[in-house]
Amino acid sequence: MMIDYGAFRFAGPPRTATTWFRKAAAAVGLGEKSSVGVHTPHTPRGAVLALSTVRHPVNWLSSYYNVLDGGLIGVSAVDRFAPLVRRSRSLGEFVDLYLSSCPGTVGEMFWSYNADSVLRIEDLPWAAVEFFGAENLHVDVRKLKQNLEVVAGMPPHNVSTGVIAVISPKMRQRVLDAESNFCNLYGY
């Protein structure tokens, strides 16, 4: 059950603003009741809303390659990419290995989080501000109003630094084609 906030649970793959979300939730007064780990997928549908984050598949592959460098987190849907990173000398080589061995698995990884609702990280901070303002969260409205501006102005966390590798427009399109179901569902 990942991070339990009482009215909802939150989990997401690495490189999807999970640290930012936790800091934003704390800023509006949502305390964590328990935490198994922010990257541990939700158990299949429960009585409490399961929330997750998603990210554009090309940007996720790039960020994963540039930052995690093939590290394992103990979630098979995420860890399937680690051997590909380790075998690659460049982002292009990594993406090419992904396309030839497991196309479509970025979307499968996101779906493995069994979320009832998702926030696209490209829509932060406003998607989170809207979510935090939902009536069923039982947030202290005064504290929420005081801190929504803080949340709206929060900078990203764990941002890639240094030289960030990019892929060609043709390879980018190949990823979009491989992840077309995911892209269509989330408006990418």
- Biggest sheet, spatial arrangement of strands: 3-1-2-4-5
Q: Termini distance?
A: 28 Å
Mean pLDDT: 86
Order of helices and strands: EEHEEHHHHHEHHHH
* Secondary structure: helix percent: 40-55%
Class inferred from helices and paired strands: alpha/beta
What is the alpha-carbon Rg in Å? 17 Å
Number of domains: 1
Strand runs, count? 5
Explain this structure to me?
This protein is α/β, with parallel strands linked by helices and 188 residues long. The chain has one domain. The protein is built from 10 helices and 5 strands; from the N terminus they run ββαββαααααβαααα. A hairpin with a 3-residue loop joins strand 1 and strand 2. Helix 5 runs parallel beside helix 9. The two termini are 28 Å apart.
Task: Briefly say what this structure is.
The chain is of the alpha/beta class. It has ten helices and five strands.
Secondary structure blueprint with pairings:
Layout: E1 3-4, E2 8-10, H1 18-27, E3 34-35, E4 49-54, H2 57-68, H3 76-79, H4 82-86, H5 91-101, H6 105-111, E5 117-120, H7 126-132, H8 141-152, H9 169-178, H10 180-186
Parallel strand pairs: 2-4, 4-5
Antiparallel strand pairs: 1-2, 1-3
Helix pairs in contact: 5-9, 7-8
